[in-house]
Amino acid sequence: MKLTPSTLSLALLAALAAPAAHAEIAIDVIGNSEVSFEGLVQADFYSFDTDLNDYGADTAGSDVDGDDYLNELRRAELVLKGKGPGNIEWVLGYDAKDDKFLDANVKYKFGNNANHFIQVGQFKQPGATMEELSSTKNNDFISKASITNSLGTPRRLGVQYNFGDANWAITASYFGRELTRNREHGSGYSVRGYWAPINEAGSIFHLGASYTDKDTDADFIRLRARPMADMVSLRYVDTGSSGLRASDRNSVIGAEALWVTGPFKMQAEYMTTDVKRYGNFDDFSGDGFYVSGLWNITGETWGYKGGTPVTNLPEEPGVGLWQLGLRYDAFDLNDGNVIPPTTPGGSPTVDGILGGKMDSWTVGVNWYWRSNFKFMLNYVTVNQEKYNNASGFRRVVEDNPNIIEARAQFYW
């Protein structure tokens, strides 16, 4: 769905005029299950100061040097949730914008302990990043980190067992394909463990680690990253449409840390991926990380649930919760070398895969207004570089766009 600037403006005015609502809508008790309805609608706007490539959807091309923009509905999530009967909980979610199922599962809590349960259906895998496992409506920045979008395994059909307490847990899952047809495939397993030795109001310290191993299914995997703008289709940093053929299995190791003190939060995550290949092809390795800091200017702090930070509601709804954030993100898909030509005038050759590198800085301001509205403004500077086929692998070619990003969000 494409939104014109005037349509987006009208939608924002209508949202501002709407009365505040509760966080969810209670529907009824059906079959001893308390059923509620939740939703999340996001509209994004990007303005690009482009460099080598044109990242706008309307004028796809290359070798441009100017401005471009993109605005569109980002998410339209509709979710039914149920509590009961007994210790059973269930959820059925669908994203009408992306035309795909979200969480669709049944959970049984042992002894009514929220941190000791078994879950069957589609859910976020424990090998996803801490950022991915956190609630989407509370993202610190408009674009998630490059490792979250590129290396983590998100929702899949499977079974999961979680054992722990409020301060720690160990989670293990076995998964298959994604529920929506023609989406992600490849069976595998994932584990995550975390520990918060400090977990009290206004003071949290968390450490965690994860491991995922999965079949590449069609003996092929493609790793790539958007330039910190989620709706952009072009990825400059990319292992290529045929670069990682003859791939057998893909494993990812992750490490995470979180520190909260009063109105300040810092978190960091690192992931390294390894692709096992057969025949005469060498294995491939890539990695990435991010470090971010957030300051609640209005003084609120964060909660903690399931090994992830929880953003609290504004203490003064009329004023809202104001946040100022900064993030550094780095991603590396180079695992090879350029071999100089052996004869005069010859062409270099590549030993391995040179998918490129990317690093970026994001500065952001967030405003949570009352219980249902959120507005975000980000400025992103991106630096990308890779050996380009067009140059015959003779030199590194850079593409360094700057992006202004805005988001309006309504949730209940």
Automatic annotation (TrEMBL):
<dbReference type="InterPro" id="IPR023614">
    <property type="entry name" value="Porin_dom_sf"/>
</dbReference>
<feature type="signal peptide">
    <location>
        <begin position="1"/>
        <end position="23"/>
    </location>
</feature>
<dbReference type="InterPro" id="IPR010870">
    <property type="entry name" value="Porin_O/P"/>
</dbReference>
<protein>
    <submittedName>
        <fullName>OprO/OprP family phosphate-selective porin</fullName>
    </submittedName>
</protein>
<dbReference type="Pfam" id="PF07396">
    <property type="entry name" value="Porin_O_P"/>
</dbReference>
<keyword id="KW-0732">Signal</keyword>
